[in-house]
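Researcher: We're reviewing a set of sequences before deciding which ones to prioritize for further study. For each one, I'd like a predicted 3D structure that I can look through quickly. This is Activator of Hsp90 ATPase homolog 1-like protein. If possible, include the structure in token form so it fits the rest of the review sheet.
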Amino acid sequence: MRHFPASMKRGSSLNIRSRMALPFARLPYMRSSEHVVIADHHQVVVYSGNSPAVTEDSISEFGDGLVAANDGGLRIFTGTTYGPVTVQVELHDEEPALPSTEWTEVSEISFGVRTGPVEIGTLMGGPIPESPDLAFSGPGWYRIRVAAQGRDRGQAGEVGERYLLATWLAPEAAANPVRKSDQIGKSFRGEEIGERPEEASEASAKNALRVLVELLQNGAGNVPPGNGGIGLEVAIESPVDRVAGFVRSLPAWPSWLGDGGIPDLQGKWVSWFSSFDGFRIEGTPVVEASSVTTTWEYSQLSAPPPGESFPGYRPLLAAPSVVRISWRTDANGTVVSLHHNDLPEPLEAPMTDLWRYYLDRLSKLCKTGAFAQHPWQ
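Model: Here's the predicted structure for Activator of Hsp90 ATPase homolog 1-like protein, in token form for your review sheet.
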């Protein structure tokens, strides 16, 4: 004989109706879309119809290291200097659960919308055409949660940098940096990151850069190359694949050598020095299995040439020099060899000091996965 619960026995229709009348639990509503956005000057931008001021200097500071906002929108700071990052946008009708710990930086911020739409985009290109409207319910206050993963890999030129933007309607509230653990976030916040080279190496490099710039500005780049060039070799206690990964990753070069710049722009890399107005290094690389060979040219921003309206970069060397960096496996890790040829003789001494510092900096990068600040920054 089949048995039924008491509430379903004959004569219990009232109980049946009562149970059937119970409402189902409401599930949170969420719309999700994924987009590839080009990071530009270490940032992705969220634009609004409130004001165009999102791109002004009023929020050029780095906020909490992940996001900064003003009336015009938000700036989200990326590890990638220039290049594609993945942005997932989620629109919720209530506050969602926090993302998993693989999202190493998480911040929440309130944003008041007077005029929409609110869209993701690039610094120089504006909103992307396929962006959803983050202000999905019209004007009002929204809570926007920004989560990031892979920013340190992005700074080192690796792929896989991702962002999650979750938004929901909520009253205005104080900003809340929920999670802060990646190295690039510490850098944006002005905290010490990575492992610095020895103090003597940093002091020597700082002085060498000053001497180098002065020599170039006084015409030393027109002196014929020296006979020997520069040759250095260092042992790095890291696997050869890790060392090769960083050296072969041209997006890492601007931060390795200078204060940032542009990786792989029309086949070139560019690294500039903010402490020396308009001074930069640039090169055209050839990347091979166990080496990178690149031209090495110094230039400085100068007044517009006759007949031109805009300033340009004036080469400071009579002809580009050539740098070759190679690596091989060693019992204790990796041996890196550096050769810098065709460099004007007066520049060899300061560049030797700088290359010792750069190779020390590469060793620290392989150990910690992040660059410390340069001594001249």
